[in-house]
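User: tokens in, sequence out, please.
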């Protein structure tokens, strides 16, 4: 079971801490499964209290809000056009944040991409043979501006519009867990859910949290190694990549990252994007948006949005290359 927990984009670099620290904080570590992936949490607390049961309950409740794989989740009911569904605070927060990112990226990020995700075989439906006719028939359903929120209800211009929260919900759940820990007076922690990470405070010895960024591999089954390590304090990091979730058919590799404007999986040379932001929800959403944009358009966007930092790994002339924004360069070390 726990071998599965090692399969993630970000690898937390384990370090020891001194038991002689004057605050005598105790280290608490635990992990589990959620949202079809792993979670791993480390924090320092004076009494060494484990909040795993409470966090498991929190994450389970969140699945009942935002999971497409839970039949009666709020998201599933909204997608079925259930007029009796009552939206909760988390659903509304995700929806409003997603709309904001969609506007900012001019649709490179779009939670209404659900019908295309399913058609290409990366959702909860069986994969179908996608051709131009199918893509053209689904594209009219992909438009974040064709949905709105009114009196606590989602209003769709077309009933066939479906949401897919996968590119933002995992980051949001990291923020939820971080917020929970802070309500318990815990301010020195790292939370990792499927590679989306928030690091807060420091370790008792004064050292900062260190998080690894995975090196893209030729196939999804290759051994995982680090490409870079980021030193983090009071910030979040999320990655989106095309080299782990894909399938091959007829000699062509189809990535799980779908361009909402074209209806097809992305085909550019960008392999992964890691985004540093104030919270994991934002980092998660923009990492996906940048994978859709491609390197050059993402670089232009970052020049105008200095609150975001990013690290890109791409393929050029038969070799891996990287690009890192200036702010992230200060806390990132590449593993040569």
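Assistant: Sequence out:
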């Amino acid at each position: 079971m726990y071998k599965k927990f090692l399969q993630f984009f970000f690898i937390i670099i384990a370090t020891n801490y001194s038991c002689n620290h004057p605050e005598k904080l105790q280290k608490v570590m635990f992990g589990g499964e959620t949202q079809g992936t792993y979670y791993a949490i480390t924090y320092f607390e004076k009494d060494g209290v484990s909040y795993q049961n409470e966090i498991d309950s929190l994450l389970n409740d969140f699945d009942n809000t935002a999971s497409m794989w839970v039949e009666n989740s709020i998201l599933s009911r909204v997608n079925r056009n259930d007029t009796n569904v009552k939206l909760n605070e988390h659903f509304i927060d995700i929806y409003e944040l997603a709309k904001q990112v969609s506007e900012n990226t001019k649709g490179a990020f779009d939670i209404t991409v659900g019908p295309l995700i399913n058609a290409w075989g990366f959702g909860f439906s069986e994969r179908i043979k996608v051709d131009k006719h199918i893509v053209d028939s689904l594209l009219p359903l992909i438009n974040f501006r064709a949905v709105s929120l009114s009196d606590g209800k989602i209003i769709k211009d077309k009933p066939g519009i479906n949401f897919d929260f996968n590119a933002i919900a995992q980051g949001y759940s990291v923020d939820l867990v971080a917020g929970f820990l802070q309500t318990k007076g815990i301010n020195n922690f790292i939370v990792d859910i499927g590679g989306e990470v928030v690091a807060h405070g420091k370790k008792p010895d004064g050292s900062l949290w260190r998080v690894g960024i995975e090196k893209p591999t030729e196939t999804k089954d290759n051994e995982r190694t680090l490409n870079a390590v980021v030193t983090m304090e009071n910030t979040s990091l999320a990655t989106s990549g095309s080299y782990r979730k894909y399938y091959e058919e007829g000699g062509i590799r189809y990535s799980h990252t779908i361009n909402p404007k074209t209806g097809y999986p992305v085909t550019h040379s960008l392999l992964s994007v890691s985004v540093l932001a104030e919270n994991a929800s934002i980092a998660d959403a923009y990492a996906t948006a940048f994978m859709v944009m491609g390197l050059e358009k993402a670089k232009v966007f970052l020049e105008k949005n200095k609150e975001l930092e990013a690290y890109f790994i791409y393929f050029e002339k038969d070799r891996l290359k990287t690009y890192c924004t200036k702010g992230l360069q200060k806390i990132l070390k590449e593993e040569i």
